[in-house]
Write a sequence for this structure.
């Protein structure tokens, strides 16, 4: 009796089980990373908004957080859409940052997970918290009397800004994926060079 099909089937089941375990570990790691980033970022931003008496600066901080979320989404989508071939050609010519860009594209699932899931979700939650803090500051300054309407408008405004930004960012990232990942690789290479010099 040929036992090869049974051995093969058992091997496939074991591989699937290991993949599921790996996916669970990765999911928990991403969740812990998001939590570790969200707590200090939220405390720092809300403390900053509370100490900033000038409302336009607080709003500029909110816009900056939204832009960081959109930019991280661009990198995450571009990593999944980009191809290694043109970046390998750049790396062969010794262009600065191309090798790092190849590594980012090769590790696209993790890059997308960090950029889209961790940074994107953290900045989304953070922008909502900042919006509420700014609204509370406006109420204290008595610039608005209709608190319920103002809260609804602030929440809707922040949410729609994120949705609009990310919707455009995804189409842009798909069109310019190679150029985006090349620039991301250059940033990683520059950071790596600076940290080596300090060490």
């Amino acid at each position: 009796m040929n036992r090869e099909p049974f051995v093969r089937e058992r091997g496939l089941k074991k591989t699937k089980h290991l993949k599921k375990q790996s996916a669970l570990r990765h999911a928990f790691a991403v969740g812990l990373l998001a939590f570790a980033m969200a707590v200090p970022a939220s405390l720092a931003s809300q403390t900053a908004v509370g100490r900033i008496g000038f409302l336009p600066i607080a709003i500029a901080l909110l816009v900056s957080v939204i832009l960081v979320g959109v930019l991280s989404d661009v990198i995450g989508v571009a990593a999944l859409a980009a191809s290694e071939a043109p970046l390998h050609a750049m790396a062969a010519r010794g262009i600065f940052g191309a090798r790092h860009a190849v590594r980012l594209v090769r590790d696209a699932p993790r890059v997308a997970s960090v950029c889209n899931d961790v940074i994107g979700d953290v900045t989304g939650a953070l922008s909502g918290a900042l919006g509420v803090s700014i609204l509370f500051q406006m109420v204290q300054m008595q610039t608005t009397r209709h608190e319920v309407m103002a809260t609804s408008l602030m929440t809707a405004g922040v949410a729609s800004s994120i949705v609009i930004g990310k919707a455009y960012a995804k189409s842009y990232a798909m069109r310019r994926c190679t150029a985006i990942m090349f620039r991301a690789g250059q940033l990683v290479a520059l950071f790596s060079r600076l940290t080596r010099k300090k060490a």
Remarks:
- The chain is about 90% helix and 0% strand.
- The mean pLDDT is 78.
- The chain has one domain: 37-198.
- Residues 4-51 form the longest helix (48 residues).
